[in-house]
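User: Reviewer 2 asked us to show a designed sequence for the structure in our supplementary figure. I'm pasting the structure tokens here. Could you produce the per-position amino acids so we can include them in the response letter?
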């Protein structure tokens, strides 16, 4: 199994990430041209947590998405269902309490976290709506969700350059750095098929999140969505 298709199964997704785990962070940095560092800082700012509060970083992969808030003293639980990604995460950051778990059946009690966040993970979850409801269940009343995900550039000329040229070039660039370049064909396909900013906001509301809003980053290549559990 080298890559998942859009009609993916959870097993295909987990094995695809097992296959890219070894060079996942390197490939990301090259493909995102270090923009990912800024996007991750903005996730921490949007979470706005204090040291000692507890956050679930879902689909945390190798734990890179957890670092900005974990390193600021927030009690961070990185959770993922790819054992390959978790293994690399454990080697990189043995200080973080990685947990194996599926986003659609989280191994946590109701209202366990002050906040839940998911970076570049929700698009890969087979049942997105079930995951949004699970995240709501494990968040304390008054707590927050922050979703960081690829989205749709808002300025038409930029959207055309991005989808027609940059996205098509992605697998060729990934061939040079990734341990599984085919996975980056899936990345481009899944970004194209993902709902736009308003579409994702509507899905958050249906799952029970209140006061939903979003902010575009890098012209809408990425969007941060937030919601609260009342
Ligand atoms: C692109 S990586 C993102 C990793 C990390 N959050 C980051 O920003 O670098 C997506 C992750 O989602 C995880 N994932 C996908 N579906 C999942 C599910 N149902 N439950 C838990 N993790 C899942 C994959 O295993 C993978 O590690």
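Assistant: Here is a per-position design you can include in the supplement:
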């Amino acid at each position: 199994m080298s890559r998942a298709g859009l009609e993916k199964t959870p097993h295909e997704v987990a094995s695809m990430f097992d296959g890219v785990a070894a060079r996942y962070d390197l490939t990301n940095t090259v493909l995102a041209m270090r923009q990912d560092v800024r996007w991750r800082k903005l996730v921490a700012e949007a979470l706005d947590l204090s040291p000692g509060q507890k956050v679930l970083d879902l689909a945390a992969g190798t734990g890179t998405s957890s670092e900005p808030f974990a390193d600021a003293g927030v009690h961070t639980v990185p959770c993922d269902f790819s054992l390959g990604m978790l293994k690399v995460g454990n080697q990189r950051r043995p200080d973080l309490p990685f947990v194996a778990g599926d986003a659609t059946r989280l191994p946590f009690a109701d209202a366990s976290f002050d906040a839940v966040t998911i970076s570049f993970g929700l698009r890969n979850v087979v049942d997105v709506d079930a995951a949004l409801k699970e995240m709501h269940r494990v968040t304390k009343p008054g707590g927050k969700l922050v979703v960081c995900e690829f989205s749709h550039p808002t300025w038409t000329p930029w959207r055309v350059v991005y989808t027609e040229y940059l996205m098509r070039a992605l697998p060729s660039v990934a061939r040079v750095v990734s341990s599984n370049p085919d996975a980056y064909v899936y990345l481009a396909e899944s970004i194209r098929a993902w709902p736009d900013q308003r579409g994702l906001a509507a899905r958050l509301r249906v799952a029970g999140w209140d006061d939903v809003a979003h902010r575009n980053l890098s012209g809408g290549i990425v969007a941060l969505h937030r919601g609260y559990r009342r």
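For the response letter, you might also mention the following. The pocket of S-adenosylmethionine is lined by residues 10, 13-14, 17, 59-61, 64-65, 80-82, 85, 102-104, 119-121, 124-125 (CB under 6 Å). The chain has a mean pLDDT of 94.
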